[in-house]
Input
Amino acid sequence: MRISAPDLNPEQTYRLMSGIVVPRPIAWISSLNAHGQVNLAPFSCYTFVSNTPPMIGVNIGRKAGIRKDTANNIVTHGHFVVNIGDETLLDAIHMSAEEHPPEVSEAELLGLSVLPGEAIATPRIAEAPISLECRFHNATPYGDTGAEFYVGEVLVFHIRDGLLQDGKIDTTQLRPICRIGGPNYASLGPIVTKRAIRQTAKTVMARDST
Ligand SMILES: Cc1cc2nc3c(=O)[nH]c(=O)nc-3n(C[C@H](O)[C@H](O)[C@H](O)COP(=O)(O)O)c2cc1C
Output
């Protein structure tokens, strides 16, 4: 089977790519709306882009050309929280993708509790085992549908007690979920451990060197 990319419309391309780029972790983003309420939505086009300072990136699409509430809130306030849900939060994560007017708080609708931010004004989701308080860094547009890649600098890591072992997250205990194609999710399968491959140490470079 061969598919020529320019023959596909945006929906067909999305359907194809979201089944190819799998499994995807989920950034469950809380942000503040104009009324100071907590907006909450899941985003699986998500990764980290820098270690020092720690930075993450999320691709946020548009709804028929209009920016999603999360993107608007990030641009308006300059901060947001990436919460990481576990298997127990799957239904809430999925339901928080429902489209609501900007003044509706999905966190409130879903009966989730929030905790105040420490470094930023955006609250985090209390039920989430991990939350990253982020300061908005920049957004870069890609393609023809108005999608933008939002990058944020992590200022504070909140990690549930017991999840951190020797500086590393105990993934088995975290029980993360991931998105695959369609309204489908998966949890961790068996973990296979291999010999660690030695890597040259990461260092901080001078700002003007490449
Ligand atoms: C698991 C999951 C992952 C999603 N990932 C993305 C994504 O990466 N980018 C995106 O624009 N929308 C994504 N969506 C759709 C948004 O969550 C949805 O458009 C939501 O209504 C946006 O809410 P907001 O308008 O409050 O920002 C995803 C939905 C689900 C259920």
